[in-house]
Amino acid sequence: MIRTLPRSKAYSSGFKVFIGLYFAFLFAPLIVTMVLAFNDSMFPSLPWEGFTLDWFFGNGPRKYGIFNDRGNLRSIAMSFKVALAVTALSTVVGTFAAFLFEQEDFRFKGALYFLMIAPLVIPGVILGISILLFANSMGLLIERVFDVYVKVLGPGFWLVVTGQFSFITTIVALVVIARLRKFDRTLEEAAYNLGANRLQVLWYITLKYLRPAIFGGAAVAFLMSFENFNTTVFLVGSQATLPINLYLQVRDGSTPVINAISLLLIVGASVFAVLNLSSKRERN
Amino acid sequence: MTTNRKRRIKWGFVVFFTPVFLWLLLLIVLPQLELLRLSFVGTGGSGFTLRNYLAFFKEPIYWLTFVRTASYAILVTLIVIVVALPVSFYITKIARVRASGFLMVLLLVPFWVSELIRVYGWMILLRESGVINQLLVRIGLFRQPVEMLYNDVTMIMGLVYTSMLFMVIPVIGVMEGLDDALIEAAYDLGAKKLAIWRTIIIPYCMPGIISGSIIVFMLVLGSYLTPNLMGGKNSLWFTEQIYNQIIIYFNWNQGAAFGFLLLALSSLIIWAVLRLTGQSLKKVIK
Questions:
Q1: Where are the alpha helices (DSSP H) in A104-123?
Q2: A106 within domain boundaries
Q3: Does residue A172 fall inside a structural domain?
Q4: Which of A36, A43, A206, B254 has the fewest CB atoms lying closer than 10 Å?
């Protein structure tokens, strides 16, 4: 049944086949997507027409590779900008939230904590529309009262950042809280006794200890922002982020240039996953 | 000294509290309240009305889609549990220790790849001109290609695929703590595999199964890409109704009502599951 117990041959090999199939199921779509990025064909499908790098470097007239594809490059740049802004904001506020819930005591702490984890169980679509509607109502109200049009409250860069920030901060906070919980507070006491002030203690002791968790949380925030679709789709203005742009191309059909983009993203995500895991292992 | 210290802590409290409070107030609480308010307002911006909710009950397409989405989300969650348990069991209890670490890494990689790309991979595999069709025709198993996308079975498979890992990870987390001696003891006393699963493994893993179920259910219910791209025009997923109302018909009030119904449904089911199993949300989420 388990490692230490005798197992029948049929049981062991049956289980092995099951796991093999499961991993095939897990990786088949990713591998096929990556392989077809090198197919010298106008369509992302078989038959295999020969190996090419045109979907990366091609510069017309028939094949435009990703590095010469203006539309997709612009959406990648947009996604990078959004992800950087979201990462910066959510890492700071998420860390603040971790300190608030781990080191401070106040009334209604339980209720506020509940509110903080709520974004994880609210579907992303709802976060998107509620922020869209709320920002719109705010914009109308400000326009009526002060007679100024606030562009930031309309769909566009800042609304996307706000929408993604609203739930990604929770994830950063949970990552940092998990590490802060293991922090030995006598270290802070010792620093106080040696004459450090609150800021010094925070900077030299607590934040130093939290650094791996903060970086880990920031990396997760970046990736989640970069890949988000459900919330973002309601908040984008005229300039689409990469997932929105890719969605339109996948839906309407496109050349294997999306396979090339996918390959880059899959490789990026894999490198990230391995780094994340190995840094976790180091910490333990 | 003590008063001085106290003042310092108060100051810290304000710094930590303000941004967190503003975040939750401005981006979570007030938008949800605004969603609720707008769902009771007519399209012309007139006063209080129940029309948006009445439309939901009057038009069978709306509430049928709603019921369909909810039942499929439950079905997907159950399938995911059934697949995740043996996978987690193999990785934590059967595979050699060295291999199990490697399998864990393998398991996590697709988790970081965006849903869109994973769905796109399935589209390349399954569509009429897709890889699987081409292979099967070449082998001679199919005389002509068959459209395997755009039906409910494929859509459910896609949803299982995209949400799978959110079950496997918490279940593995719990299963690692299961003492092998319990299983050995049951085995020595003559328990059959089924009995061991039913009386030891599954009850022990229940916390992991519950937190996985909540996340999987919520993700599937709120999923847009997978039903839209793999289920095609007939997928009839409730998030698509919301999307259509907001983006295509520009009827925000109707969209707000639908959004609120979806929120109410997901909260209700999550609450019921927590209640039935005696868990708290705080414990379930890490």
A1: 109-121
A2: yes
A3: yes
A4: A43
Q: What is the pLDDT of residues B58-96, one digit of tens each?
A: 888 888 999 999 999 999 999 999 999 999 998 888 888
* Range of the structural domain that residue A169 is part of: 76-253
Query: How far from chain centre, in Å, is Cα B104?
Result: 21
* Three-state secondary structure call for residue B223: coil
Domain count for chain B, please give it. 1
Joined together, the tokens standing for residue A56 give 């990366």
Is A275 a member of any domain? no
Calpha distance B81→B74 (Å, rounded): 11
* Number of structural domains found in chain A: 1
Alpha-carbon distance of A93 to A89, in angstroms, equals: 6
- Residue B282 is predicted with a pLDDT of 67
- C-alpha triplet B139, B140, B143: angle, nearest 5°: 140
User: Is residue B211 predicted with pLDDT exceeding 60?
Assistant: yes
Provide, as residue numbers in chain A, all residues whose Cβ is less than 8 Å from the Cβ of B16. 96-97, 99-100, 104
* B136–chain A nearest CA distance, Å: 12
Answer whether A117 touches B (CB < 8 Å).
yes
CA dihedral B249, B250, B254, B260 (to 10 degrees): 120
**Nearest CA distance, A92 vs chain B (angstrom):** 9
- Helix, strand, coil percentages (3-state) for chain B, rounded to 5, are 80, 0, 20
User: Is residue A25 included in any domain, yes or no?
Assistant: no
Q: Is residue B72 part of a domain?
A: yes
> Is B35 a domain residue?
no
High-pLDDT (> 70) share of chain B, %: 93
pLDDT above 70 as % of chain A: 98
Q: How many residues does chain A have?
A: 284
Mean pLDDT (whole number) for B122-148: 83
- The answer to whether residue B165 is domain-embedded is yes
Give me the amino acid identity at A45.
S
User: Would you say residue B28 lies in a domain?
Assistant: no
